[in-house]
User: Which sequence fits this backbone?
């Protein structure tokens, strides 16, 4: 079987949520014996080293230029989509069994004459209209707020067009999947959890009282989450002996001076670290205090996989299926959030029990290969025959 995967960002290194999901799926498809061709239309060209890693799993890689023009702001489609118009000029043959679009941004590939709409599957990373609405709520910059709001409205238009052209969907968020099937029961859709490498599950030693947040520091919803924590929760924990709040993520070179508005006593910031391993291994628990967002928060899943129990807002764990009180602790008010953290810091055995429960849930419910194999099998009788043979 032969598949074309179309991405809006080079999938390796897998250093943020969307890349983790896409790269894991590429490895799963490779393991399943698929011939994989990859087209990427993003801002940053990969290094030769990163390209070599991807080529060990993918049979062919094609890089397509992304071109942004101010005039695109006037188009009915979002700028994130319009800037990837070059995709319809890519060198594509007509013999793919399936074409997997990694998100709405790469929709222009459907204008290519060799793409059959019936072969297209959309990986839904986010409800992009809701996601851009959440970005508009999170940012204080009025120009950015206006841009995000307009983009959200344009994504609403695009989503209606996508429904006309595509009838196969793989949702990363269980919440968004359930909402979709209620509205569109005839579409071929499935909840496909993010790929998890089950043998790599780790566990904290619970020796250092490091409360960890890892996320892209240039994103306004992550900044909003950190600011909320620093303003309402962090000061309450300063009385805790050995407590530290550890923040890590890619800033894309943007200033982090906004952190200086808060009490940074016992705050450690890692700006664009090369590796997160030491940060996870020295952590006690992970916090996800997001106030606005859409889709699955991969940072929550990755923290659990890397050995940290999680305290989160309801936004920070939506779509994961994790159950409050069993797999994760959830609070949307500062007092409740603080109490959950204090509770775990005071009781390492309870922290370990919560981690064990969340990791067991992921092991049982996040079998990416099985779900993906079953979904494709349900679409294609020839694929079913191939699996039997």
Assistant:
């Amino acid at each position: 079987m032969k598949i074309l995967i179309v991405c809006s960002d080079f999938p390796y290194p897998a250093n943020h949520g969307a890349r983790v999901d896409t790269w894991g799926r590429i490895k799963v498809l490779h393991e399943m014996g698929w011939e994989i061709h990859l087209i990427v239309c993003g801002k940053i060209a990969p290094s030769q080293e990163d390209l070599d890693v991807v080529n060990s799993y993918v049979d062919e890689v094609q890089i397509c230029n992304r071109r942004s023009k101010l005039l695109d702001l006037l188009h009915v489609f979002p700028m994130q989509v319009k800037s990837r118009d070059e995709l319809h000029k890519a060198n594509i043959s007509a013999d793919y069994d399936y074409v997997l679009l990694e998100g709405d941004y790469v929709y222009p590939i459907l204008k290519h004459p060799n793409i059959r709409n019936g072969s297209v599957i959309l990986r839904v990373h986010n409800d992009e209209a809701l996601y851009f609405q959440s970005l508009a709520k999170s940012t204080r910059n009025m120009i950015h707020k206006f841009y995000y709001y307009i983009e959200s409205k344009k994504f609403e238009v695009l989503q209606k067009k996508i429904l006309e052209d595509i009838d196969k969907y793989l949702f990363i968020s269980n919440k968004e999947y359930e909402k979709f099937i209620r509205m569109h029961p005839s579409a071929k859709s499935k909840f496909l959890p993010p790929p998890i490498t089950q043998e790599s599950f780790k566990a904290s030693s619970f020796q250092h009282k490091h409360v960890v947040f890892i996320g892209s520091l240039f994103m306004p919803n992550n900044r909003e989450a950190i600011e909320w924590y620093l303003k309402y929760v962090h000061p309450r924990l300063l009385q805790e002996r050995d407590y530290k709040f550890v923040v890590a993520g890619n800033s894309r070179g943007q200033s982090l001076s906004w952190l200086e508005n808060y009490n940074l006593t016992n705050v450690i910031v890692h700006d664009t670290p090369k590796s997160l391993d030491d940060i996870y291994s020295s952590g006690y628990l992970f916090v996800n205090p997001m106030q606005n967002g859409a889709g699955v928060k991969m940072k929550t899943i990755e923290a659990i996989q890397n050995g940290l129990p999680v305290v989160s807002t309801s936004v920070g764990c939506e779509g994961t299926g994790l159950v409050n009180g069993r797999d994760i602790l959830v609070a949307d008010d500062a007092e409740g959030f603080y109490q959950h953290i204090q509770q775990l810091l005071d009781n390492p055995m309870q922290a370990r029990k919560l981690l064990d429960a969340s990791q067991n849930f992921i092991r049982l419910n996040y079998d990416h290969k099985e779900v993906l194999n079953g979904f494709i099998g349900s679409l294609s009788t020839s694929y079913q025959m191939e699996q039997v043979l």
About this structure: Residues 142-165 form the longest helix (24 residues). The first strand starts at residue 2 and ends at 7. The radius of gyration is 21 Å.
